[in-house]
């Protein structure tokens, strides 16, 4: 929850929505107009598949009415995250179709009636995040997606059906604008747990957290009350001072067990709804805040080639899919490459991903070969070429709305084979 709150503060510390920087005031949609390029360094492992429409919301005072347009035949997903990082609702192609509609996001304590035709979505916390994604088929498709984004609206219930001129956001020039994970790492135990206690006052724990709440109460952390580490017993102070490094060590130890590796690909684990698996919740907040639930998308990550060797642009690789083993996704799939810094790699083609929406060249038997290498594989193979750097790299195979064989583990990406 602390990572989410610091992310919110950074993302909303502007007067007006700024899609290029993915920032906007509270309760205002921010529409990202283009894919990131190789110069983008804000969020690790970005995608080149969708344009985003995001909003940080606060419904503590009154509901926020969201309007989504008719999306035609365009795949989209609108996940709702509470401040604990759980996905508590998802709108979009997979869940409620493409027809759009009006939805009132209401807080956990709100009571009242909504206008006819407005569906309620109850947020477990007053504050939360919506990270909408719209399938985008390359730069030539931007203009069409922009027209869809323009149909997204967010207005307070009290302004529903009336002209609404939202106020400018408040800018705090003194706010720490470093990446949120860096800020959390720099917080001392006293500041961290004081902020955690403050957030608990407006954002209640989940009903299943009873056992943990009893443990927290023993050290003075009680929902609805402040917390001062200096006033705690010495034994509690020492324990909480060790909490952050101990938790970080446990996350690193747990990470391998959270992933299944097949054919040199890490297949990931359940994300989006964590229940009482607090370590998994913390790990995803640290390494992939805003990840989609696996029913909506899976992101197998390359670990090594077929010989168990790390991937490097000093070699050439082919990823071969048999005709009956193409990535099974109901929406679409793509393969995205990243350098060792976890960002896109600059290349002459400005090609950072390749997938089923590209003009791929299939083999006569319907199979598909993708070539991953630093130098061009030649004109005949160029449509299937994903440029690599001269040195180390890794990749994600993204499957949007993965089919049952992916979800139940019957399908995994084939191994990357090194070419002679």
Proper CATH architecture of the largest domain: Sandwich
Query: Could you tell me the radius of gyration in angstroms?
Result: 23 Å
Number of helices: 8
| Proportion in helices | 10-25%
Count of individual beta strands: 20
Give the strand order, joined by hyphens, for the main sheet: 1-2-8-4-5
Uncertain regions: pLDDT < 50 for 5+ in a row? Answer: none
What's the shape?
globular
Number of discrete domains? 3
Taken in chain order, the helices and strands follow as: HEEEEEEEEHEHHHHEEHEEEEEEEEHE
Give the oligomeric state.
single chain
Describe this structure in words.
With 420 residues, the protein is an alpha+beta fold. It has three domains: 158 residues, Immunoglobulin-like; 72 residues, no CATH class; 158 residues, Jelly Rolls (Sandwich), CATH 2.60.120.600. The strands form five sheets. The chain has a five-stranded antiparallel beta sheet, sandwiched between helices. β4 and β5 form a beta hairpin. α1 packs across α3 and α6 packs across α7. The longest helix has 21 residues. The radius of gyration is 23 Å and the shape is globular.
